[in-house]
Amino acid sequence: MNGSQSRAAGAMYGLAVGDALGMPTQSLPRAQIVARYGALLDGFEPAPPDHPLAAGMPAGSVTDDTEQALLLARLLIEGGGRVDPAELARRLLAWEESMRARGSLDLLGPSTRRAVAELLAGADIEVAGRLGATNGAAMRIAPVGVATPCADLDLLVDRVVEASRVTHNTGVALAGAAAVAAAVSAGVDGATVPDATALAAAAAERAAGRGHWVAGADVAARIRWAADLAAGLAPDAAASAVYTLVGTSLAAQESVPAAFAVLAASPDDPWLACRLAASLGGDCDTIGVSWRGGPARERPPHRRPGERPAAVRGGRGSARAAVRCPAAGGRPSRGSMAGAVTRRFDRLVHLGNVVIDVVLNVPALPERAGDVLATATQVTPGGGFNVMVAAVAQGLPAGYAGAYGTGPFASLALAALTDARIEVLQPPKAGLDTGFVVTLVDAGGERTFVTSRGAEATGTAADLGAVQAGPGDAVYLSGYGLLPPSGSGIPDWLDRLGEPNVVFFDPGPLVGAVPGDVLDRVMRRADWLTCNAREAALLTGRDDPLAAARALAAARPGAAGRRRGVLVRTGPAGCLVGPAGAAAPVHVPGFRVDVLDTNGAGDAHTGTFIAALARGAAALDAARTANAAAALSVTRRGPATAPSEAELARFLAAR
Q: pTM of the predicted model, to two decimals?
């Protein structure tokens, strides 16, 4: 690691250290901090039990400041140094949901929450952040400074605006964020504190003319004034001056200049400056984050002389997940960062069957030799179609590689695939029609099936030979596609896939009819096994879903450690997820809703889970998102009822 890389790492570690020091004192008045801890904090402290935001958090815990900075860092890596504003909004919303699920009160700030709500309501990205004048953009902007050289200040300001405008599209907020990013960038290049501060003020001046106008003091002028005010003051006097005169509120024109005042008061003692920032009160964790993103020494994390490095806990987001610089020398470039894309795949190739669902809603199943009148009827594409629609609804392109015919059902299926923007990868089977499934849905929403197979069951190894999976493709197949005679060629096709191709296997309710040798080969190649509790029992002989999930998560002979995980759906209770390496499957709770029709819920769950993994979500987060999609789907009639991204975001935002 060379000097600039070490300083870049130091900026990210220091960000987490400053945040963790300010965690127990954030949102408190300085007088209360002095009474509890003295004029300056000595080190990491747990949050007091009566803290308005962080009650119960242990010493060394990071807050939303670090977590959102790392969220932005991951987006920069995925985007090769650029940030997709719409994706940032989605990630911020998902982050808040994860915080809410952990019982945290430290959620999105007022500007970000307002902007995200407007986006969900249909507002344009350019106007959603028009009122965002707080410091939320500045608190998370450090990774942009790490990724963007300061030699081209206009480019740096452009990158700041790109990463901030969706929530903080005002001149005052952009000026604050640009100042912090410029100081980070200058620090990575080895600038002195005065030079970094001067560059920060210059960046603030350029950014102040961007975005929407709101009333607020000039950030650049206040940075220069605050730095002059605090320079040369003793720590206690500096803390009093910053708290009383500069201000430590959420306003960007207060907290950002306050960070530079702290830097000016202690330019040569990083640990003292961290303690000083944390002792201010108000939004002091953000002040600590903002200044610690600036000029960095080459030994992260900073600590008091003679002390062992303090641990920064990752209970609410790991500081160890900081932006990684390239192994070769120099600053991260657009090209080098693009090589670190975390998106796991770019398209879902479906080897399963698309059929037509003839759905009949009945009060109850008829007795043997009996009859019952349906209360509603629907004819719609189903089977593998539902999984692909769910994935596409969440932004993951899909291609259908299964067989289909030329009859009336086939025409219906092909039209639906085209309307859903799903690529069809094979020519039709002339003279055959696509099969159909009669689905009886009783008053409780439970389903019973009768399947009539058609062209989709006649695929051959030669047909599959024309289908080529690219290195960015994931593959999905179900047990239906493995039934004789068409399933025998699939294992050979799977064996030809490359190591990067992730394979998802859903055994389906007829898994017991799949030939043993075919099933064994597919199970060996599958990276993810996703099924319901009944199917898990058929595969393992264990009726208890947890015991079945544990058995399925264990490596099978010859699997060579490929298995990434197992997901067992447990209906309204949610699902059990056993990621590779986990000691035991983890229960991910479902969502309570009024059930209308469970047809297609498992498919909605699977397609959404795959799409979430494609975006880089952790397995448990992806499972929670899939649970939400399944919950929404059962409130609607029909099999292909997966929610859109906006519907899913609104559902999760309300819980």
A: 0.49
